[in-house]
Amino acid sequence: MIKHLNRTERTQRRSLSEHTAFRKFLPLFDRVLVERLTAETVTKGGIMLPEKSQGKVLQATVVAVGPGSVNQKGVVQPMSVKVGEKVLLPEYGGTKVVLEDKDYFLFRDADILGKYVD
């Protein structure tokens, strides 16, 4: 018997498979794994933008967080961001990481410029 999945079931299964990728990768120390938001391809007026004219996206969603850095006294400094928060990244920097055919970036906690508050 073949069972066809509806849209919500497919989305749930896809999100579960994405979360298993992050279980396989855990950042060390004060590192933060982020997924950049996609660039706008259409303006508000409906004009399609070519890839070259699209700016670099500086907003990202935190996907995984390390435990924190250890100071000289041996105390673990807590991280300033949590999984799921939206953050502002510097224009340059970060290490590109490919997990299950998706691009992610690894930044130090101190390199993140700020976070967006809802």
UniProtKB/TrEMBL annotation:
Keyword check for Lipid biosynthesis: no
Signal peptide: none
InterPro entries per the UniProt record, alphabetical: Chaperonin_GroES, Chaperonin_GroES_sf, Chaprnonin_Cpn10_CS, GroES-like_sf
Domain of life: Eukaryota
Keyword terms: Chaperone
KW rRNA-binding (keyword) present: no
GO cellular component, one term: mitochondrial matrix
CDD domains: cpn10
One MF term in the entry's GO annotations: ATP binding
A family per Pfam: Cpn10
Family to which this protein belongs: Belongs to the GroES chaperonin family.
HAMAP family in the record: CH10
Oligomer status and interactors: Homoheptamer arranged in a ring structure. 2 heptameric Hsp10 rings interact with a Hsp60 tetradecamer in the structure of a back-to-back double heptameric ring to form the symmetrical football complex.
Function: Co-chaperonin implicated in mitochondrial protein import and macromolecular assembly. Together with Hsp60, facilitates the correct folding of imported proteins. May also prevent misfolding and promote the refolding and proper assembly of unfolded polypeptides generated under stress conditions in the mitochondrial matrix. The functional units of these chaperonins consist of heptameric rings of the large subunit Hsp60, which function as a back-to-back double ring.
Protein name as catalogued: 10 kDa heat shock protein, mitochondrial
